[in-house]
Amino acid sequence: MCSLRHWNKFLILLIALVGWSCGRKDPLYRAQQDFEGYPQYSILLADMKEEGNFFKDYYHRYKVIYAEKAGEDSVTFKEELLDWQPVKREQYEHLEPFLGMALVSKTPGEDVNDVPQPPGYQYVGDSRYGEWRTDEHGQSFWVFYGRYALMRDMLGYGLGGRVYRGEYDDYRGYRRSGRPYYGGQNQYGTGGNVAQKTNPNFFERRQARDAGRRATFMDRVSKRTKRSNMSSTRRRSSSGFGK
Predict the structure, then answer these.
(1) Residue 211 pLDDT greater than 80, yes or no
(2) Residue 237 within any structural domain of the chain
């Protein structure tokens, strides 16, 4: 019994070590750890690609928007585009819908949020960064203060249009329930129009890849058809021989 207990403890320790090792190899986890010391950051899925035919390799590229303290009560926002990183197929497919979105974000006074959302949304509704104004139709929309214009532009805020109070309320509901939010009318993410403006290289690669697949498929169909026609011709020739 003693040896069995020891064996069970060994298995538990081994599983824990394997899980820790896999986490350490996850590039998104590493990026999060690298920027954990900053008071604010957002890790965006800037680009992704797959290479190879039969045995594919998958890659992510992240852009990090982070804040450095510039004084006792002020910060300076900066951005860094990280190198391409290999990822597992499961992670690639899991995050594939979120191109251009913030995968992980951290803001002062809040826990780290790892539910995908449009970049910059964590600052909407926070009076430290902006205010609600009313348009000509009486609808309330969010405006960043001028001193945060650089942060706003780096996050790509505004490409999807104004963020109205109703959309912000929807976002809060999605966040509370732990569901990804794609913005009003689903304009963010791989299927939205914002990603097509900010990440054209991804869509060009995907279009070229799909065209290559179609060409390969048609080539295979053509070869099968030729082989089938040749076999049919040989059968007809054989059946007519000796008449």
Answers:
(1) no
(2) no
